[in-house]
Amino acid sequence: MALRVLIVDDHPGFRARARALLESEGFEVVGEAGSGADGVRTARELAPDVVLLDIQLPDTDGFAVASTVTGEDGGVQVVLTSSRDGSDFGALVGSCGARGFIAKAELSGARVAALLR
Amino acid sequence: MRARRVTIAVLAALVLATIGICQVEATTLTHKNGDMYIGFGLPVVWAFVVAGLIALRRRPGNRTGWLMIGIGFGWLCSALTDSRSDVVFTLGMLLANIWPGLMVHLLLSYPSGTLDRRSRIIVTAGYAITLGVGLLLVPFSQPRTDGLGASPRSADNLLLVSHQTTLINVMQVIAFAVAIAVLAAALVVLGQRWRAATPAMRRVLAPMYLTGATAIGVTLLVVAILQIAHVVGNMLSFYVFCISFTAIPVGYLFGILRTRLDRGSAVQTLVTTLRDQRTPGGLEDALRVALSDPTLEVAYRRAGTDEYVDANGEHVDLEPADGRATTEIEHDGEVVAVLVHAPVPPEETGLIDAVCGPAAMAIENERLQAGLRAQIQEVTASERRLRDVLENVHLLAVSLDLDGRITFANQHVADVTGWSREELVGRTWLEMFPTGDRYYLDRVRDERILVHDEMPLRTRSGEERSISWSNTLDRDAAGRVIGSTSIGEDVTDRNRGVRQEEALRRLATMVAGAARPDEIFAAVCEEVARLLGGQTGNLVRFGDGPGTGTVVAGWAEESDIPMPIGAEVAFDGPTAIAEAVRTGRPARVDDYARVDGDLADRLRGLGVRSSVAAPVAADGRLWGAIIVSTTGDAILARDAEARIGQFAEVVALCLSSTEARAQLAASRARIVAAGDAERRRLERNLHDGAQQRLVALSLALRMARAAVAADHPAAELLDSAGDELMQALEELRELARGIHPAVLSDQGLRAALGALTGRSPVPVRLDVELGSELPPPVEAAAYYVVAESLTNIAKYAEAAVVEIVVRSDGQGARVEVRDDGVGGADPATGTGLRGLADRVDALGGVLRVASPAGAGTTVTAELPLDTAGPEPPVALGVGEPAG
């Protein structure tokens, strides 16, 4: 059964390419959100298996969204992504409840799956 | 021996001549009374010859003796015409008339034996008629035949050529007239000499002149009487003539005798006078009496010098005036005094010697006393000169006795202190000037005086002056200390000038060192108040309304500041501050007792006596004023107005400097902030633009690769392109991170520092405790301090561990990065630390680097949270009226 993915990113272009890429690798992209608040709400509605969450969002940052959605009942997992390097965020990635970080340029279904195992 | 032979020869000649003449007279046929001739005539001869001999013995070089001897023998020769022998008779004719010429010569040359020019003419005329006319007539005169006086029985004139009665008569009339003229001229000369003669000279002249004049007078009188009575050939005139002429040598001898007697009596007089006189100059008076010379002066030679002084010690110039003579007095072979007196005839010089011999002791005594008096006079004169100098010098000169009483004060003391000299002299110094040295007199008495000291002196008006004194002990003749004399220089102005320079330098240093304006203003108040002798100093900033202000700084000698900071001041009435505002120049009020107005009342209430104020202008506007005041009875320095202005300028300088500094700091902070914003924007653009596109490209490539079989020719190309793209993205990320750390803006300092340390190849212990939110510029500065430090540590430090401590409170943040590496970092080299220091400085912070070799490096940044620079200038209202 394919993993259900929610993509939260304010760049529609990235969302489209990520959707195509992940779906090509067998993921089911169940929804997209362009802001932190939309992301949290959509995650609650759709209860995806994983949220691919951009760190830089127009209304808040990915760490805050991650803390929120992982802290709620339902077992939603979060993978953070950013066009920046993960080391730029130091310990924040590990302390926000996310399963890990994938640089946008390196995004692939295999990497997402690897973080979730 | 020679004198004795001369005497014997003359006496022998006299005896022979006497015998011869007696023979002549005994056998004469000329007249009947030969024995009477002998009886009256010979005493005249003998008297002159003997007196002449005595005169010769007294003064061998003097002609007087020879002239008298000559007169004696000449007189004798005139009797030779009584001889019966023709030869002797003729000889008598030749020599008969020689003695009247000698007589005139004697009188006119007496007593020196020499003739002056005028006398020489008269004497020559006398010789011409007595000798010349006589000789001229000898060839023409045969007395026996002319019947005029000569007896018909006299002998023959052997030289007779031809008897000429008429010629004889004419010549005799001429000779008589010339003789009268000569006699008259001689009498005139003698009379003049008598009048001009000193008493001593008159004593010498008197016997000779008296007897001579008497002889001439009596003879003329008798001749005249006999002529009138027509008595011819009467012997009476001859007798009178003989007697009166005998009186001349007798008078001379009498004079000598009297001189001898005088010496005795003069000495007696001197001794008696000296016994009664004890005052200076007594000896001189005694000598005047003893020597009968009221003009006599005694000049005493000062021991060991060639200087002469009188009895009072006054200098005497020994250049002899005309008509004055000097006689040196010796004692023990040394000249001890010189008598300056009327010229003394040689006969009288012995008198001086006779008098001065016994008086030598007295002279010596008086000389020593005169020397002492001269020394005293010198000392007195020297003291007078010193006093003159002290009087006119532009220094204070004061003498005190041992009780501290002022015995002397020069005019400058009065000028400086304001007390008149009459008020000062007689009062004690401490009574007049209580700030004086209380132990001064003790030190004077102990002879441990301080040669130089500087003491305050409060003038009559209450002003404090500084006097630099030079002190000396005064001693009496015995060397005992009797007081002291001090010379003082008023160094108040000089000291104040030096202190002012020092104060201004201190303040300028504070201004240049960017000290806080409130500190500078407090220092200005203190410095200017102390300098001008004030007890308080205040700086007032003017308010909006006219005549109001707020105290912004103050200083007081006592602990309480009468006008506390923040106090509102409204200046009305003619107070110093109001005047300074009105005129725009420093102004002073010396006594608020007579000033009207609320402020004056308030100042009086605070005990203020006087004030000086100067306006402070800033940015071309009147900003405020600086005021120095005195309390109690102290008064301001007299040059306070001139000096306070410079302090007002320091305040203005401080204001403009602070303003400029604040503007500069704000400007730098703005530049930094603008730079940061620009970098943030750049980084965001990269992130949102190029990075996103490349990411999208990367994803597309990966999808394309996934769609291509592994053995497809494009697979390898796509893989290679994907790798290149990843590399490009990594480099772009690195570039963006260097431009601006996004995490700092997005996640704050702590997260940014965490990310930094996470990337550090050297293990880092990070300790961040932020007590308050940091402004972005401070966060950025802190971040870059850590980032640059970690970069340097990774490159150079060879450190094992790095410790980073970040703290902040409400005032500022402190960042410390310490490693255990090799140290030796030099912030002057390398642009990284230099740029950091500029960034920190622009925020008003300080960056320090301590990096001793071998002991690691510690970089510390102190960052004020208030990033607008040092003191915000608006708080001081520069250029803006206070609201």
Can you put this structure into words, describing what you see?
- The complex is a heterodimer of chains A (117) and B (883).
- By secondary structure, chain A is an alpha/beta fold.
- Helix content of chain A is 39%, strand content 22%.
- In chain A, strand 4 (77-82), helix 4 (92-95) and strand 5 (100-103) form a beta-alpha-beta unit.
- Chain A has a 5-stranded parallel β-sheet, sandwiched between helices.
- The model of chain A has no long low-confidence stretch (mean pLDDT 88).
- Chain A is globular and about 30 Å long.
- Chain B has 883 residues and is an alpha+beta fold.
- Chain B has a 6-stranded antiparallel β-sheet with strand order 12-11-10-15-14-13, with helices on both faces.
- In chain B, helix 2 runs parallel beside helix 10 (236-276) and helix 5 packs antiparallel against helix 6 (117-137).
- The longest helix of chain B has 67 residues, at 640-706.
- Mean pLDDT of chain B is 83; it is low at 868-883.
- The interface between A and B is medium-sized, with 27 and 34 residues.
Provide a quick synopsis of the model.
Chain A is an alpha/beta fold. Chain A is 39% helix and 22% strand.
Key features?
heterodimer, A: alpha/beta, five-stranded parallel β-sheet, globular, B: 883 residues, six-stranded antiparallel β-sheet, rod-shaped
Shape category of chain A: globular
Q: Could you give a short account of the major beta sheet of chain B?
A: 6 strands, antiparallel
Name the biggest interface. A-B, 27 and 34 residues
Strand order of the largest sheet of chain A: 2-1-3-4-5
Question: How many separate helices of chain A?
Answer: 5
Helix and strand pattern of chain A: EHEHEHEHEH
Q: Helix amount of chain B, in percent?
A: 55-70%
Return residue spans of chain A where pLDDT drops below 50 for at least 5 consecutive residues: none
- The quaternary organization reads as heterodimer
